[in-house]
Amino acid sequence: MKKNPHIGSSLDDLFEEEGMLNDINIIAVKRVIAWQIQKEMAYKNLSKTEMAQQMQTSRSSLDRLLDPDNPAVTLDTIERAARVIGKRVRFELVDAL
């Protein structure tokens, strides 16, 4: 079987060559977490103010958590948000490519 000459390297390969792959992966994970929390807040009809109060944090801290482009959020903040919406957090290390 012949390889298709029009297929090149993957987008991940390009990002890795440019030294951006790790940053992009971190932002992607953060966006998923922020989306999942927002979805559960809507499902449970929780306002940002109510959510922040139940997390025992400020509204601005919750806004940073929900900002998909802000990766600077502590694991503690993520865990407290998960607890309020009835979820738990699971992290794992995987082999590098």
TrEMBL record:
Q: Name one GO molecular function term.
A: DNA binding
| HTH cro/C1-type domain segment(s) | 37-85
Pfam families, alphabetized: HTH_26 (PF13443)
Q: Which InterPro entries match?
A: Cro/C1-type_HTH, Lambda_DNA-bd_dom_sf
Gene3D superfamilies in UniProt: lambda repressor-like DNA-binding domains
Q: Which domain of life is it from?
A: Bacteria
Coiled coil residues, start to end:
none
The protein here is known as Fis family transcriptional regulator
Organism (species):
Dulcicalothrix desertica PCC 7102
